[in-house]
Amino acid sequence: MSTEAQLESLLEVINSSARQAIAEYKKGGNDVPTINSPEFHPLDNSAHNVVLRKAVRVLEGACQQLCASLAPPQRTLVRCYDWVCVDIAHRKGIADVLDNRPEGLHVNELSRMVRIEKTKLARILRLLTIRGLFKEVTRDVFANNRLSLVIKSTCNAGYLVHPGGGVELQAASVFFDTLNDPEYGASHDPGKTALHYAMKQKGLPTVSSSFEMLEMDVSHPIGRANTFHKSMAGMGEVLGSLSVLYQYPWNEVSTVCDVGASIGAFSIPLAKTHSHLKIINQDLERVMPRAKAAWEREAPEALQDQRIDFVSLNFFEEAPVAGQDVYYLRLVVHDWPDAKALTILRHVRKAMAPHSRVLIQDFIIGNADRSSDGAAKNIGVDIAPEPMLPGFGSGNTFMYQQDLIVLMENNGKERLLDDWTALATAVGLRLEKVYDLGDTAILDFRVA
């Protein structure tokens, strides 16, 4: 295929995926949203939008590939979203200030309300506006749009920008030095990472992993533990993780153990959607009070019906509650290098009955070539259409960014399908099926 023919094919992919997304938005008589829509579309927070997510994944990946093919490489190099400015806008509550003000506010008034010097605030907002976050109604008058609604204080997804301004920034600032350090560079120890290197340089207390920092509040002024739990709920919103509530046959099971559950970002919606399930929320003992408070606030009926139990668990040292139908782990295994991941899975395998299954909701990194496309497709993994880059190119940028983040924090990793099957085989599990959800996937493991 000639280079020009490849570009023409990409244009066809862009056109077809965009039309598919438009068709999904129009279902049920809804209007198709634009970046300037002043409110959420019904599909924005729907768990039924897997088709839309898959169409957008293709669209984003094909568009980025086309842009990178035709733009000067220098332009592409600097075309990153400025999360520093997003972090400022979120911490200052700018989207909340602009709420219910469709006419917008002049930067002079906004400056007085959020206490940032007006010319600097205007420059920050103008950068965000040109990226598509907020809109400039008229010169120096800014208003919310559909994107900026996500960083209102009532949306959990906004809290994802805080770790980027703290832990990841610390780690990224020394990542190069860490790779060249003889002690840290070759280590896969979760206690010898770029983050730990940065802490050592600053004379901060040594911790065994980034998760111990949650209670230390050294990386963020509003409290890293509370931010972390909110960001985990926000991660589910960003990734559309709750589509698993409708894509997996929960009617086939009765009991679910949520391993590494945090405060219930997944299990609370699961309990609300599938009231026949008995659920166990397992995480570290220090998380349990926050988890109970979250359930009392968001799912009191599950507590009243005794459909939820709280059992503390250190999954590196002990097995979860034995004999459950499903052991569910969402974005848990990717935090850890293989040795630690195997420890977690061995403990889960020890708890399993012959009928039990393990559901791991995580990322599946695409191979750099298409040699394994056939095998992946046969087990349920979607394959990027030609001539897109394998793994949907930039349509899956987030998972590759996460790969570096977990590397810098805990020496964790996102894994290829072969990596997942190797881990499973080592602990006596077999991969039965993959449910591709558009961003994350559900890997369904059974006893081998």
From TrEMBL:
<dbReference type="InterPro" id="IPR036388">
    <property type="entry name" value="WH-like_DNA-bd_sf"/>
</dbReference>
<feature type="domain" description="O-methyltransferase C-terminal">
    <location>
        <begin position="228"/>
        <end position="429"/>
    </location>
</feature>
<keyword id="KW-0949">S-adenosyl-L-methionine</keyword>
<dbReference type="Pfam" id="PF00891">
    <property type="entry name" value="Methyltransf_2"/>
</dbReference>
<keyword id="KW-0808">Transferase</keyword>
<dbReference type="InterPro" id="IPR029063">
    <property type="entry name" value="SAM-dependent_MTases_sf"/>
</dbReference>
<dbReference type="InterPro" id="IPR016461">
    <property type="entry name" value="COMT-like"/>
</dbReference>
<dbReference type="GO" id="GO:0008171">
    <property type="term" value="F:O-methyltransferase activity"/>
</dbReference>
<protein>
    <recommendedName>
        <fullName>O-methyltransferase C-terminal domain-containing protein</fullName>
    </recommendedName>
</protein>
<dbReference type="InterPro" id="IPR001077">
    <property type="entry name" value="COMT_C"/>
</dbReference>
<dbReference type="GO" id="GO:0032259">
    <property type="term" value="P:methylation"/>
</dbReference>
<keyword id="KW-0489">Methyltransferase</keyword>
<dbReference type="InterPro" id="IPR036390">
    <property type="entry name" value="WH_DNA-bd_sf"/>
</dbReference>
